[in-house]
Specification:
This protein is an alpha+beta fold. The chain is about 40% helix and about 15% strand. The chain folds into two domains: about 80 residues, GMP Synthetase, Chain A, domain 3 (2-Layer Sandwich); about 40 residues, no CATH class.
Length: about 170
Amino acid sequence: MHNPHMTKSRQDEQPPRRNWVSPLGPDATAVGRAAFDRAGFPDPSLVLRWAEIAGDETARLARPVKFSQGPHGGVLTLRAVPGAAIFLQHETRALCERINGYLGRPVVARLKFVQGALAARPALASRRPVPAPLPPDDPAQSYRGPERLTEALRKLAQARRTRPNMGS
């Protein structure tokens, strides 16, 4: 008696091959997420957009290496070039405000500095086009509110005008 479910092709009989290269693409997101999770970062953009958040000068002197929850809120550990930690300590309040403003909620309550050498940042080619000036009739020009919000709305409006097909 012949059972069609018992029939296997020759390929199915071979054991899986070992030590073969497999594509990294499907696993890259999981590997990246695991690395950020090990360092305690709930939001990877804090690391990935550090220069944008902290400013070029601060990013040149210090980089985030770890995030943890302390008894009084989040503690962001920054590796700073030797001697820069003292300078950056005076900028702690302003830096925490910029970080929390970027994240949209009070996540970082305190900064902790450790001294160490920083790996050189790769030079990235500027992919951003120069923002177009806003016309006087743009709604962002007429908004009257807190200065930081007004500036953010203007930057958003400029970005929308610079990128094709945005908002269409």
